[in-house]
Amino acid sequence: MQIIVAGAGIVGVSCAIWLQRAGHDVTIVDRTGPATGTSHGNAGVLAAGAIIPVTTPGLLGRAPGMLLDRDAPLFLRWAYLPRLLPFLWRYLGHATPAHVDHYGAAMAQLLHDSLDQHRALAQGTQAAHYIHPDDYCFGYATRAAYDADQMAWDRRRAAGFDFEVMDGAEYAQVDAAFGDAFEVVVRCKNHGRISDPGAYVKALADHFVEQGGRITLAEITDLQMDGREITALRTNKGDLSADRIVFALGPWSRAMARKLGLDVPFESERGYHIEFVNPSRMPRNPMMVASGKFVLTPMDGRLRAAGVIEFGGLEAGPSRPPFDMLRRQVARLMPDLEYDEVVEWMGHRPAPADSLPLIGANDPQGRSFSAFGHQHVGLTAGPKTGRIIAGLIDGHKPNMDLAPFDPQKFAAR
User: Fold this and answer.
1) Residue 63: its pLDDT value, please?
2) Considering only CA atoms, which of 330, 334, 356, 365 is closest in space to residue 409?
3) Sheet containing 131-132: which strands, arranged edge to edge?
4) What is the per-residue pLDDT across 2-16, written as a single tens digit (0 to 9) for each?
5) Phi then psi for 345, rounded to 5 degrees?
């Protein structure tokens, strides 16, 4: 078939490669090209155990204090609050034990083999050398902070994830980068990292083109519809049609979803990173700093601090406080860190109210498919999402329950 994939991030490129390997004629359509958004700026962690949503019980009570604490990882552009409130109401409504269990069971299926999925996607390409099978660590400043996180670790253990709880001094014998900053470190096994996420996705896109795929730089302005069935993409460079269309537009997916008859409660979650170029100290493994909910990841020639949640929409530019918070946190952890320069970045994560990505057909006829909404785990889940989408288009039933990710749960009735 002729297939269009809308979006050139890790999810879109993964869909395109697996569809291409299945024998289809594939074109990627993107406004700016491969890995120019969150697929460049993420933390670079293959977070197989990321089965705990942000919306955990008690979030509503904690959120106001976090917004007023300049060292907390939650930020809000207050002028955006009136537009945010309908989404926020539904988002916070998922902060229940039942939804944590539902989310965890669904995401464990999607994420558990992320390292193997990346290796399969990148096999035989120049992208493969960016994949590293490292542990993913969580650093807690105090034993009490670790104890307060037991709900999350109990759920990960019950889901079959392997991790080791270490005394901070013991971990420092393995990795001295953080000194005595942590009293407890949890090492999650069977994880990994990408040492340059932007270069990785671009290398995958280059492979796709080398194998005969096409990348068209165009902005999608509208959809041509016949009832609920899509007939073409309208772009600033003309209409494009295909036998199947896959939407992997990340945080820019909401408008397209609505045109397809899907009323997805959806927002942009703005994420930030700072990079220390040529740092004097480099951790061995990615480290989630529990006090600030951000990750320090060793990259190729850089140390990246990435994370933070800010609600402020797609249009406003970066805010200064998240960058300043990351700088303060890193300075406390590594006060003697030296580097050539600091590079700052802000991007957008696609955040459905239930935190579950949309993966599947948008209509009963399977004319178009959704592959977006991965929130904090787009890099982790991208290759498997692409493999699932390719299988669905070819009529293969995956060996997992896709009901939690079904786009048609949001179909207008």
Assistant:
1) 84
2) 356
3) 45-46, 192-194, 131-132
4) 999 999 999 999 999
5) -150, 145
Cβ neighbours for 87, distance < 8 A, ≥ 6 positions apart: 265, 266, 267, 353
What would the two tokens of residue 253 be?
A: 């997916």
Query: Are 303 and 196 spatial neighbours (Cβ–Cβ below 8 Å)?
Result: no
Q: Which residue has the tokens 């100290």?
A: 281
CATH topology of domain 2-410: FAD/NAD(P)-binding domain (3.50.50)
CB 178 within 8 A of CB 282: no
The residue ranges of the chain whose pLDDT is under 70 are 413
Rounded Cα gap, residues 124 and 4, in angstroms: 24
Average pLDDT of the chain is 95
pLDDT attached to residue 66: 83
Q: Residue 245 in contact with residue 367, Cβ under 8 Å?
A: yes
Task: Please state the three-class secondary structure of the chain as a single string.
Answer: CEEEEECCCHHHHHHHHHHHHCCCEEEEEECCCCCCCHHHHCCCEECCCCCCCCCCCCHHHHHHHHHHCCCCCEEECHHHHHHHHHHHHHHHCCCCHHHHHHHHHHHHHHHCCHHHHHHHHHCCCHHHHHEECCCEEEEECCHHHHHCCHHHHHHHHHCCCCEEEEEHHHHHHHCHHHCCCCCEEEEECCCEEECCHHHHHHHHHHHHHHCCCEEEECCEEEEEEECCEEEEEEECCEEECCCEEEECCHHHCHHHHHHCCECCCEEEEEEEEEEEECCCCCCCCCEEECCCCEEEEECCCEEEEEEEEEECCCCCCCCHHHHHHHHHHHHHHCCCCCCCEEEEEEEEEEEECCCCCEEEECCCCCCEEEEECCCCCHHHHHHHHHHHHHHHHCCCCCCCCCHHHCHHHHECC
User: Would you say 375 and 351 are in contact if contact means Cβ atoms under 8 Å apart?
Assistant: yes
What's the pLDDT score for residue 411?
87
